[in-house]
Amino acid sequence: MTKNAIVQKAWILLASTALAGCYAEIEDSSVSYSQTNVCGTPSVCTGNGMPLSLSSVFIPPVNVNLGDSGVLTSSESKQGPITFNGSLILNKVTITVKTPETGDFSGIRSVDLRAALNNDNCSQISPNCKSVASYDSTRDGPATRTLVINGVGANLLDFASGNNKTVTIITKATGNAPAPVSWNGNIDMNTAIKARGSFP
Amino acid sequence: MRLLCLLVPLLATEAVAQSPLVSSPTDAATPSQTTPPVETAPPPAPAAAAAIEPAQVPTIEQEPWYSLHKGRKFGVQLDLGGPDGGGLTALFRPYWWLRVNAGLAYNIMGVGIRGGLTAIPVRWVVTPSLNFDLGHYFNGDFTKFVTPSNDAERALLQDTAYDFWSAQIGLEFGSQEGFAFYVKGGIAHLSATLPGTEVSAYMNSKGTTSGTVTAADAHFSALLPCFSLGFTYFIF
Predict the structure, then answer these.
(1) Same domain, residue pair B206 and B100
(2) Which residue of A has its CA nearest to B121?
(3) What are the pLDDT tens digits along chain B (236 aa)?
(4) Helices (H) and strands (E) in chain B — how many of each?
């Protein structure tokens, strides 16, 4: 192989490696969104040990506003040769009874957390309503004052809408509501964020 | 005297090029030539004989790879490029094919340290090189490139330490024992850890909910094309 051929091949290798697979990404494995008084003031959560079904209101819808940070881009979008995509994976949701101290979730049999699109009421799973986390007392063990609902790996950005990327989470449950007539608590949603721009 | 030393081999080589002793295939294919070339050719000069057998001239590539370099071993390197920034580094060459560098790095965003290895597989007039560098910037003020929309974003972008490495192919022009200019290109990897407190403040400043966001440390990484140009000068 001649010197010119080696130099030429080196430049081709250089150009192709420089352009192949370039990216920039930001990742955070634990971003928690917390909201106090998840039942509202006054509380509208079902209590008094009432039986719960998937059609009843256990906890009112929680609207999570992700903000217009510009980092979180739902699904995949292209701007020129750069492809952007992002994900907001729900790791788990924790609901904790704060008041009264006698309240707990020991009567809850199952919980299905659903993300809604287009103001869907999530009475049924549909393209506008998907399950994003679940709890089963047989599988996960009985809950006390804290209810841990494990995520199923759903990308919440697929359900974000509006300029401020609002995600609506609707909680469906079976079993029996906490014993107190009125109760309130905090919700903590733990997520993993990844935003990536790649070229070409 | 030096001029004479240069001219003698040059003229001798010229004489060999014109001599019928070095016959072309065309010459061999024309038996009609009546005079045998051996008889008419003058005896070659000693310098010409050396030119005929270049394989006997020792070159640096023919030295064993493990032989310590006998020439200049220490020098300096100054370069400029992106996204690594510029650097002023000291050079050490233990073997003719290997250079080690270490020194200071600077770009508009901050200062840092860096080091690296350069391998030179062959030595030509234009010498190819394989380069690997890594370094750390102690602070990086990204607000010099990005206009923050609020104080939280400013805090996140203003003081970001980051690491980098780069792998580049280069071409070097000039003397490997003295002054050489080079251009390099390849890929660079940047990585940074963003403090969770600042990420939380940034996300809370962007959201408008009644809730609050608490974030762990975030990690930024990028794989980008890079280039640099600069020079090396071996002093002793």
Answers:
(1) yes
(2) A6
(3) 343 333 333 333 333 333 333 333 334 333 434 333 333 444 444 444 444 444 444 455 566 777 777 788 899 999 999 887 889 999 999 988 899 999 999 988 889 999 999 998 887 778 899 999 999 998 878 887 778 888 888 888 888 889 999 999 999 998 888 899 999 999 999 999 989 998 888 888 876 567 888 989 999 999 998 999 999 999 98
(4) 6, 9
Q: Which of A145, A147, A89, A141 is nearest to A115 (CA)?
A: A89
Interchain CB contacts (distance < 8 Å): A and B: 97
Same domain, B17 and B122: no
Structure tokens at B142: 């990204």
Tokens for B191? 């990585």
Structural domain harbouring B46: 2-57
| Element housing B110 (H / E) | strand B110-119
- Does residue A147 contact residue A108 with C-beta atoms inside 8 Å? yes
Q: What percentage of chain A reaches a pLDDT higher than 90?
A: 43
| Within-domain flag for B62 | no
Does residue B6 sit within a domain? Answer: yes
pTM of the model: 0.72
First to last CA, chain A: 32
Does B24 share its domain with B98?
A: no
Asked if residue B102 and residue B41 are part of one domain, the reply reads no
Q: Same domain for B222 and B124?
A: yes
Instruction: Give the CATH number for residue B221.
Output: 2.40.160
B181 touches chain A (CB under 8 A): no
Chain B interface, best mutation among A32, A41, A156, A165, by max B CB count within 10 A: A32
Q: What length is written for chain B? A: 236
Indicate yes or no: CB of A164 within 8 angstroms of CB of B207.
yes
Count of domains for chain B: 2
Tell me which of A6, A9, A14, A29 to substitute to probe the interface with B (most B C-beta atoms closer than 10 Å): A14
Residue B144, helix vs strand vs coil: helix
Report whether CATH 3.30.460 matches the domain A23-199.
Answer: no
A69 neighbourhood in chain B, CB within 8 Å: 202-203, 206
In a shared domain, residues B24 and B120: no
User: B119 at the A interface (CB within 8 A)?
Assistant: no
Task: Convert the pLDDT of each residue in A39-70 to its tens digit.
Answer: 988 999 999 999 998 777 789 998 887 766 55
> Is A19–B206 a contact, with Cβ atoms under 8 angstroms apart?
no
In-domain check, residue B158: yes
For residue A93, the model assigns a pLDDT of 95
